[in-house]
Amino acid sequence: MKKHQLKILIPVAYCIASLTLFYVVVRSGVTAVQIVGIVLAVTAFALWITARVQLANNFSIGAHANELVTTGLYARFRHPVYYFSILALIGITLAVANYYLFGAVAVLIILEMSRIRGEERKLHDAFGKRYEVYKKNTWF
Predict the structure, then answer these.
(1) Comparing C-alpha atoms, which of 59, 71, 76, 58 is closest to residue 10?
(2) Is residue 28 classed exposed, middle or buried when 0-12, 13-18 and 19+ CB atoms within 10 A define those classes?
(3) SS3 of 65, please?
């Protein structure tokens, strides 16, 4: 599989699984909370895929510091792939109305925060002052 295909494979797989779940939910009636979940998940999926594409050749499964990406979503968010994947999962949880899944999402958030800290260290080691300036210009 080519690297550019891998960039969007995971978000697209989540999206397909979510659409299947949404279909099941919609057939049994939809609540306002589920509609919010669907809107949140769809929006987050689109932004997640956008963030992966904007990484261009800098996407990798493990944390690497080849180039500091500071444009597009990365101009405001240091880790939009992580943030939007979490928001997508929260949206899915709301949409399928299975609130026990929030426990799994909480565990995922803890794991993603650990990954973010590791990535922050690698980026700081690789780009130093430039990364510190970038951090000050992002929301989070």
Answers:
(1) 59
(2) exposed
(3) coil
Helix (H, G, I), strand (E, B) or coil at 133: helix
Evaluate whether 11 touches 92 at the Cβ level (below 8 Å): no
Helical residues (DSSP H) of the chain, grouped into ranges: 3-27, 32-54, 80-96, 101-136
Mind listing the pLDDT tens digit for each residue in 39-70?
A: 899 899 889 989 988 887 666 555 666 788 99
pTM: 0.79
User: What is the C-alpha to C-alpha distance for residues 6 and 93, in angstroms, rounded to an integer?
Assistant: 25
HSE of 49, CA atoms in CB hemisphere, 13 A: 14
Instruction: Say which amino acid occupies 75.
Output: A
| Residue with tokens 């109305």, as numbered in its chain | 97
Cα 109 to its chain centre, rounded Å, is: 11
CA 47 to chain centroid, in Å, comes to 8
pLDDT at 61: 56
